[in-house]
Amino acid sequence: MELFRLKNTVSFMRHQKAALVFSIFMMLTAAITLYIDKLNFGLDFTGGTLIEVGFEKAADLQKIRQVMNDNGYPDAVVQFYGSSRDVVIRLAQREGVKASMLGNKVLNTLKTGTGQSITMRRIEFVGSSVGDELKEQGGLAMLTALICILVYVAFRFEWRFALGSVIALFHDVILTVGLFSLLGLEFDLTVLAAILAVIGYSLNDTIVVSDRIRENFRKIRNKTSAEVIDISLTQTLSRTIITSLTTLLVLAALFLRGGELIHGFATALLFGVFVGTYSSVYVASSIALALGISREDLIPEVIEKEGADQDQMMP
Amino acid sequence: MLNKYPLWKTLMVLFIIAIGALYALPNIYGKDPAVQVSGLRGVEVNAAMLDSVKSDLTKENIKFSKITLEKGQILARFFDTGQQIHARDLLLSKYKKDYSIALNLTPATPAWLASIGGEPMKLGLDLSGGVSFLMEVNMKEAIAKAHQGMVGDFRNDLRNEKIRYRSVKEVSTLDNKNGVKIVFRKPEALTAAYSFLKKRYRDYLFVENDEQLSLLVNMTEQKLKETREYALQQNITIIRNRVNELGVAEPLVQRQGQKNIVIELPGVQDTAKAKEILNATATIEFKMVDQEGDLASAINGRVPASSQLLYDRKGKPTLVKKRVMLTGDHIIDANSGFDEYSRPQVNITLDSSGGSKFSNATKNNIGKLMATVFIEYKATDKKDAQGNLIFEKHEEVISAATIQARLGKKFRITGSDSAGEAHNLALLLRAGALIAPISIVEERTVGPTLGAENVQLGFQAIMMGFGLVVLFMLVYYRAFGLVANLALIGNLVLIVGIMSLIPGATLTLPGMAGIVLTVGMAVDANVLIFERIREEIREGKSIQQSIHQGYEAAMSTIFDANITTLIAALILFAVGAGPIKGFAITLSIGILTSMFTAVVGTRAIVNAVWGAKRLDKLSI
Q: Are the Cβ atoms of A94 and B557 closer than 8 angstroms?
């Protein structure tokens, strides 16, 4: 079976300007939502206590809120988690109370308060110093990843490609983070992991395309840079789409079957793979082109000997 | 001839997959309910103990499938959990004092497989249920302690060398590098002290200040590092001992970074008790009781400058000299027992430097009262400017006893009211050996139901993702799709095999997500190759040429693309903790194995089936 048998070269670069405007618009939107709404950081980063309890019957959130309020936890955030029998309660850091003992206390309060038999599914307590450290480390991790990749690609290809792919990665990261900010989804450690995986994936894509561009610059001599890039993108298009498809398939499985804990992770990756595919075509290659990539940059300089291109006459 | 692998290469591929399959095999056997018996506080589990456990179980008619003594612990396996609980209760009632008895699920790996090192993957706490703690060692306090030691040492040395000084004390300098400052009265004393101390302590940096007649002493970076390292290591050792008293099967105590310790207690549900035991960080100081001072006026606020007022647990006040004779970090061992008149006593053993210090300190104080002060650091929820937790100091007199003779490395404290009290005192003394206080900064508890659910969800996601990809590849690439699918199966087998084989690797829920992601991305290499082969065929090359070219041309792309993903995964591994590390591990392993199966593995099959033949058409 073949889905994309393209006879003619698709002129991707003709839409370069429109794509550029679109990308800048999207990135600006992401930056603005990030500025206004910030990120809904999860427990890993904010610190505090989270208690997940399972009820026998569908839980009455109103009642639980009441119980929490009556017992001196007016700041408790009570939500369903995945199903109506599964409830998550979040508490901020508290002064004075030994935070590490809070989980057990709340559990007892709920047991007596609701009169239902409940099971402890999960208690998490993160001190705020840990959260701050994680935020710092997370940011550092992303930065380190981007720099390492920049160096590797610059070393293996050329600085224009390296810059193009790193800008593409930055584009993917900011759009994914922006999505989380826009939808108010919780940003926790697994999401951070997913974003690093998005970096890996998007780069994968970019490299495949760049590799082909380099190859074609060597093979095709009488075309402009834009044309060579178009040809390369067309040739790799079917691979790009199929790989994205298989990856999206498994991510859909993860999204649908992986459970609540993995939801944020799957969401970030689903969106990231989508954006990453787009960016490897339009952002990375466009930037390399805009920076003036040309044949000469990608071909090792060979000093041609006089007559080397002529047939040899041998005795 | 094109597309022909030498025999050894095909055999090597088969061999590697077979080894992977062999070590993945233990995962398909279930787990047996078991009870684990291990010794507490240096008690050894031996063959005699094994026999008595065996006879106990037989007497009570509890059937066990197998009972062994391995790695210093007894492991009794049972047929069902009912018998397991029954056996645990029985053993607990008999051996509670000296042994830790824990419920455990032991892999039912056949003996032949276990003998070649085969064991199932270790599950992370999010899959097995249990509690994990992240504890932070208070390094500031550790350094301050070291400074106090320096102050004492300098005073002794200067006194012995007859160099007169005005004061020796810990100071905090402007650049936040604390040190010890010695102030002299005369310039000659400064010079003499400088040359003497500099020779004696090579780990310290000395800065003279002629105007102030002072000497500022700092630890070298190396020494600071050693001090921190020592504080961390000592905490780890002590926590290990405490965790053993909790009676948990397969606990994990591990350092993380510069100042943190990770503790994982699988299967533990009662976190309150665990926390109490872990959190009771404390130190001990031996000080003389100030018997000249007026206790009554001290209570009214007039405490002599060299003394302080402390209370015991019952609220009885004691006036204690400020000077520390000995700190708890010199205590090697403390245990309770009975003296020759069967009165409870606590036996204490010090290290050699502690012994000589103590001997010096007690020789002039025979017949006087010595107080043992227990100092606890309780973490508050407040933080200082650097974001470190602030600890509050609680001091308590736990014993005041008369020094009967000059004391050395081994001595005892008598006068406890009961054996229980002596036991408690011994426990406190041992706990007091900690040199730096620690506190819980992170805690995650996962209930058993959620753990089991997570395993199921993760497994379902892997199967569903795997099924979808396999189906797609089969439809899209037909025969070659089948080849890619075989490689994908090989890849899964290798991931599981390697995960089982690496001792430190644990499978977590994000780790399972990593496997799912790998499944989706692993076929990328095959897609690249197959698309290239199609292209070459379209360009009119011969089938064999096309296969050959397809693999060759895609190779460097596959390599580059995977290396960069690996970079991201490795960075994640370095930064992430717990479950996230699990994701980085499976992703990294998956990338490496997929390169092998998708390139070398599929090539072996393709060469064997289609290679070196005249072909007009290819099912791709």
A: no
